[in-house]
Amino acid sequence: MDFAEYFPMWDKLGPGQRERLKGAAFRRRVSGGTVLHNGSADCLGFLLLRSGQLRAYILSPEGREITVYRLFEMDVCLFSASCMMRNIQFDIVIEAEKDTELWIIPPEVYKVLMEESAPLANYTNDIMSSRFSEVMWLIEQIMWKSFDKRLAAFLLQESRLEGSEKLAITHEKISRHMGTAREVVTRMLRYFQSEGMVRLARGGIELTDVKSLGRLAEA
Known about the structure:
alpha+beta; Jelly Rolls; Arc Repressor Mutant, subunit A; 2 domains; four-stranded antiparallel sheet
């Protein structure tokens, strides 16, 4: 895929600006489980995903994780360069969930170009708004939706991402995504199993009644 495809306003940049943006970017390949960005003290840069999957999550003082959003091929990650945004600091951790290949644009280069180019600044603000919308959606889910519905929705999302109804995922990993204790996840999954919606196995979960899970998630 072409570098310019990540920037819908590419033609509105000057030739020199395009050259500086593309020339500063470098490729990086990381293995699943690699932490790319670790809180506001870190400032890796602007990330463009070529392939793979990233997870952005926040960490409570007690060490509990909750997934804020995920990024896939052709997505861009702004909060890994939060140092270039004045008065905004995000203690967000960015981790590769799968083997991932990406471009990284150094924050100092991107910041200068963003100050020079209104189209690039507007594009960046649009990304920021989109991420804030995802954060607000997550807050609404936590506040107003019961855990059984959230868990059903999560399992269905995982099934779509993996293209299978057999998920190689542990209760511990689910708890990290959802910001709750592993025991809570295990108890709810056992209830789902008693209702015939899933089948539990060591290190995995099989969705046996997708329709019932869907009805629960949408209730």
